[in-house]
Description:
By secondary structure, this protein is α/β, with parallel strands linked by helices.
Amino acid sequence: MSIRKTTIIGSGPAGWTAALYAARATLNPLVFEGSSPNLPGGQLMITSDVENYPGFPKGILGPELMQLFKEQAVRFGAEARTENIVKLDLSQRPFKLTSENGEVTESQTVILAMGANAKLLGIKNEKELMARGAGVSACATCDGAFYRNQDVAVVGGGDTAMEEAQFLTRFATSVTLIHRRNEFRASRIMIDRAEQNPKIKFVLEEEVQELLITNDALSGLKLKNQSLEVQGLFVAIGHQPNTNILKGQIALESTGYLKTLGKSSKTEVEGLFACGDIQDSVYRQAVTAAGSGCEAAMDSERYLETLGS
Length: 309
């Protein structure tokens, strides 16, 4: 069995950019792009219009953008397999990766690009409306501008929910912040800012039970004790990084995110690199993920040079 120089787990903007740079560096990267339930192409595969990625002034569909990323990486020699990695053994060199079909791949370096999934409410039609860009989102920075002069709601009680609500007031007529408890987990300063914003209203001790739909788009929310007329719902209850195969082998943040060293993509394990949302709990944007994918490929290449590979 031949030993790979670089293997990438995951796709999306981070994984495909890492593959592109690694391929151009003649590292012949193998990309395990994922399969159901891990979407090949990452979260942009359930995003309709992407208007904030540089180079596309008229916007582009998320799946179309990811297909272009993949085609460019493959053009330069990246090999793609539509499979998940179910086991990664970091205890020996080369690293051993086991795919869902039981095949084992050995690799001198591994780039982790499995991303993170937004936690959703788990109610009917939520994913469908999100995929179509028809009223449900998990990213105000990505989608807020689509709701100019409309009424929207944010679900959540932490700093992220407060930040999303504040950001949305730049576009929306009103923002209703819904939280299931009678007090927020957010920091006091973030709560104070939200309370001082005249566009933000608060609905506490309530939960969204049903999405109301008119003409195939969100038109309102049914809560436990009331209903709201809104055209947009932003779910801000956190993200879950896809780090299950790493548990017990490497240090993770308390939130499950992978720790990288300084400003690099390096981890505490030599030869193991990380990029994209698996290690970014702050920005979580396609463009920042792509940038970190470039860093991971370059760090991997430089590490291989120290090995004489």
